[in-house]
Design a protein that fits this description.
The complex is a heterodimer of chains A (214) and B (405). Chain A has 214 residues and is an all-alpha fold. Chain A is built from 10 helices and 2 strands; from the N terminus they run ααααβααααααβ. The chains are: A mainly alpha (214), B mainly alpha (405). Chains A and B meet through α1, α2 and α3 of A and α4 and α5 of B.
Chain lengths: 214, 405
């Protein structure tokens, strides 16, 4: 359970402590990009991603999310470098087995993801860039109180969740379309961010049905 | 088989290694400066002026105090960190190596915070004498940001050390030390490409002189470049850099700003060419290699009490041992560096055949850097990578006496 406490020492140096992860993320991302490209052809041909590629890309996405969570103080501990499931308090849950995916949706994936990216660009990116950089409110609040405000933590976690869904969709891990609602991610069965405690706190309305995709 | 005879092969191997080490150190220590050269006493006050000398002594004394703080504070801070740093292990969800990286980064971060007052004081002193132009906030933000590069470096070090320790146990140093030497080689080779070096403009005669001197010294084409540091400092400097095809001579823009005459600049260029002529950068790497093996071995021995370098628990002690041993060998490293610099001065005198320009250059260095030309005996031991200006002027006079000039 996340008690929202954050180490002032690591928060002060957080952007720098993340540097080795960012370098590793970049290197891994370059290879993951090639894997996604190959996987796209595989998914078009056999109707689902190849399992080794799926595992590799999923590990990369899990890792990317933990790095984001660490960088934005959404979680406190220093993450590992392997993207292993169950290794970090904030985690992107992804399907272990490759799912059967519509070839049409796979073929047009790069176009289909645009609306979700647009939503992210208009809402999540500005929030992340305004509130979370070093000089942002969350940094000051955390440095002064030694705790990250719950609202900031949840806001950041939701932003990460949505981004995780977008990337999982773009990278062919799932063909469930990203959902920007802070309440319905889990219910959709699409990739979700598991955040301890506070994410369950708001009285979530009943999860709507998963959007039917065409 | 007796206990003594069982130990014999080990002792023989150790003896052979120690002999090889000593021979290599002896060869690297040799220079072309005549062994019987005696530097005459120099009345530095008469040369640079009493008030200039007093100012330089005052400046250098305070700077030395900050320098001493810079040597001792890390030892104190890292000694505490070696004892209590393992408490930060709870801040990590990474595996052993990742946790080791975090502990190493936090150790350096804490050191940065502890050193900040001393570094700010040093900056105040340098600004007071007009040597450095950097602002206080700029320095804090700059060094904070530069920690990112330090963090990367220490993470790479921990990856190498812990990676090999997890494979080879306490013998990690046998594989780790050659990797560090390889990294030193790589860094020396690529350094000229990492700096923003520009062609030297407005000094056509100097560029021609450099080509002439390089030819005279039997060196190929070694480009003469300018490093723009004018916004940071007023201190003049030049450096020989690179290996093989990456060899360069970098002149700081502050040495080309008109305070030094063309003959003085020719001496500077000849000095830097001498470093390339004598393969001094290779020698520095060789010297580093001589020490990195025993240091890595000692670290492996010391950290065994914390379970060895395979576990993150040993990382805070590793930092302390590393910095402590590096500080311990500082005097011998400085002495080695001073020998190479003295040889470069000697070679430059022979190449330029202009002792007046060399003498004027060293006097100008006193005036432009405010360094004490004749510091107390302990100053060069701890901080002196170059001979003192008094020694350099003395060498010029000794060279003149030998050449009948």
């Amino acid at each position: 359970m996340d008690d929202l406490r954050r180490s002032r020492l690591t928060v002060f140096f957080r952007p720098l402590l993340t540097v080795p992860h960012l370098i590793w993320l970049y290197l891994w991302g370059a290879v993951a990009g090639i894997a996604v490209f190959i996987n796209w052809f595989v998914a078009l041909i056999i109707g689902r991603p190849a399992k080794p590629l799926q595992s590799f890309i999923a590990a990369y996405l899990r890792y990317a999310l933990t790095v984001g969570a660490y960088f934005l103080y959404i979680a406190n501990p220093f993450p590992g470098f392997t993207g292993e499931p169950g290794s970090y308090p904030v985690e992107l849950e992804l399907p272990i087995e490759p799912q059967k995916q519509s070839r049409w949706k796979t073929f047009f994936r790069i176009v289909l993801v645009y609306p979700a990216l647009l939503v992210a660009t208009l809402s999540i990116y500005p929030v992340m860039f305004l509130f979370f950089p070093v000089i942002g409110f969350a940094w000051w609040a955390t440095m002064i109180t030694g705790r990250i405000p719950r609202g900031f933590r949840d806001l950041g976690a939701n932003a990460l969740r949505y981004m995780g869904q977008i990337y999982a969709y773009s990278y062919l891990i799932t063909d469930t379309y990203p959902c920007s609602s802070p309440y319905v991610g889990m219910a959709l069965g699409s990739p979700v961010v598991t955040v301890p405690a506070a994410m369950e706190a708001p009285t979530a309305p009943e999860a709507p049905e998963a959007p039917t995709e065409t | 088989m007796t206990k003594g005879s069982r130990r014999l092969p080990g002792l023989l191997v150790f003896g052979a290694l120690a002999g090889g080490w000593s021979y290599a150190a002896y060869r690297l220590w040799q220079t072309s400066v005549p062994g019987d050269l005696k530097l005459p006493p120099v009345d530095i006050s008469a040369i640079v002026g009493a008030s200039e000398l007093h100012r330089a002594q005052h400046f250098s004394l305070v700077l030395d105090l900050f320098g001493l703080a810079g040597l001792l504070l890390p030892l104190v801070v890292l000694a505490f960190y070696a004892k209590w740093g393992h408490r930060f292990m709870g801040e990590s969800a990474a595996g052993p190596i990742g946790t080791g990286m975090l502990l190493a980064m936090l150790g350096i971060a804490i050191l940065w915070m502890a050193m900040l007052p001393s570094n700010l004081g040093q900056l105040w002193w340098l600004r007071r004498y007009g040597i450095v132009k950097t602002g206080y906030a700029e320095m804090i933000v700059g060094t904070w940001s530069a920690l990112g590069a330090e963090f990367l470096g220490i993470c790479l070090t921990i990856l190498i050390v812990m990676g090999f320790a997890r494979l080879m146990g306490d013998r990690w140093w046998l594989a780790g030390a050659p990797v560090f030497v390889g990294i030193a080689l790589l860094v020396t080779f690529v350094q000229p490409y990492m700096l923003n070096l520009q062609p030297v403009e407005g000094h056509a005669a100097l560029v021609q002189a450099e080509k002439r001197l390089a030819k005279k010294e039997g060196l190929g084409n070694i480009p003469l470049k300018e490093e723009n540091v004018g916004s940071l400092t007023t201190a003049p400097n030049a450096e020989a850099m690179g290996l093989g095809p990456s060899r360069r001579i970098g002149l700081w823009s502050t040495i080309l700003d008109g305070r030094f005459s063309e003959p003085e600049l020719e001496v500077v260029v000849a000095h830097e060419l001498a470093h390339h002529k004598h393969n001094d950068l290779w020698k520095m790497i060789g010297w580093y290699a001589l020490f990195v093996f025993p240091i890595a071995y000692l670290i492996a021995r010391v950290t065994r009490r914390r379970g060895g370098m395979a576990v993150p628990l040993a990382v805070p002690l590793f930092l302390f041992a590393w910095v402590g041993l590096s500080t311990a060998i500082l005097p011998i490293n400085n002495a080695f560096s001073r020998r190479l610099e003295a040889e470069a001065d000697w070679t430059a005198l022979q190449a330029t055949n202009d002792p007046q320009a060399a003498k004027a250059l060293f006097v100008s260095f006193v005036r432009t850097t405010n360094q004490d030309p004749n510091p107390p005996f302990w100053d060069p031991i701890l901080f002196g990578s170059h001979p003192t200006e008094a020694q350099r002027i003395g060498m010029v006079e000794a060279w003149q006496a030998r050449s009948g000039g």
